[in-house]
Amino acid sequence: MVKCGGSVVNILLVLVASALGQLEEGDQCGRNGVCEFITHCPQAMADLKKGIFPTNICGYQGTKSIICCENNTPRPIVTERTPTPHITRSTSPPTTTTVRQRPNLSNAKAPGDKAKEMCKEYAQFAYEKIPSQTLNLDTTFSSELICPIKTVPLIVDGTQASEREFPHMIHLGYLSGTETEWACGGTLISTKFILTAAHCVHGHALGDVKLARGGFTNQTETKHVQVRNVIQRINHPSYNYQKYNDIALLRVDRSFDLNTYLRPACLYTQHYIPYRTSIASGWGNTQYGLEGGSKELLKVTLEFFTTAECNNTYRRSINKADSDLYMGIDEGSMICAGSRVNKSDTCNGDSGGPLVLVHPDAPDIKCMYDVIGITSFGYYCGLAKNLPSVYTRVSNYVAWIEQNVWPN
Fold first, then answer.
1. Could you tell me which residues come within 8 angstroms of residue 314 by beta carbon, excluding any fewer than 6 positions away?
2. How far apart are CA 115 and CA 109, in angstroms?
3. Can you cite a GO biological process for this protein (predicted)?
4. What's the Rg (C-alpha) of the chain?
5. Which of 179, 184, 202, 360 is deepest in the core (most CB within 10 A)?
6. Is residue 169 classed as helix, strand or coil in its secondary structure?
7. For residue 363, what are the CA distances in angstroms to 6, 49, 77, 199?
């Protein structure tokens, strides 16, 4: 297990003996403060970097700490009133006119703002709360950052993932008679929503997706596995069973319990990708023609290909009226990735799974991934180098995702 930054962040949190009592997020506290999640309080995060730990604890929400964030009072509500009417000889009582304030349009969120906000929220679950051994009667905890991300420059031909290395990975299940077939992959992006490929949702050879599971790397594991029923399937409105707009959302019947084994990935919101490589993962077939998938979660580092290179790969399918790729590779909504030096690739069964980047560490975001693509289609997996696969570009659909996942 690798601990990010080579250190353990110890934050002593007093659970019982707090002068503030059990307050909730948004409650006023102290002389001039508001109860906030610790990651939402800039002063607290700045203090942590200096080794100063928060002492005014409002309470807890699950494993998340809520602290008293000083000098963070809510903006006062200003009510406009008209002056008292001048009294005339009229016997009618004076009237008061209420002037309505115009809505503050500057508070409207731009596409991607909500996704970034939720990324910070979910980053808390990279920490594991561990009871501290003290002589004090009060219960105390230390928060340990669990970060098994392997920072290697290139993974050749696929490598077994470490436990908890890709906590956003979801496996999708299809009912075949009395048996469950686990086929496509997906990415957990909120407590109840999974991002996947539209071709994995409807029209799959096994029927509609029914189940979703996560929290494991080896398919024989049971300790941390969470299984949910899929109750809503949302294909992108422009998807028409061709290669374009191959993106969908799945909603499950109840929230996943977030922890170091299972937590959402962040959404990558920019079109430009300032890196040469990315990481794909899945339980798909390990080579072309070998069915059944992998028992272990596998990862592979892939290089980006230009649109021209990708169009050359799929030129036989382009400009044909009956082709599902008749318009060629669309750079705005697709990403091409593969290997120029070996046969690394995603394979059958990896469809719908994520193409990710490691999110840059920040004071309030550590050990997180940005999902940039969704495995869509490709040629025979791993048979030759210079045959990139195609991934749906997530940044092109951020507004649509936010409208469905976080409508408020």
1. 325, 328, 329, 379, 390
2. 10
3. proteolysis
4. 25
5. 184
6. strand
7. 15, 8, 32, 38
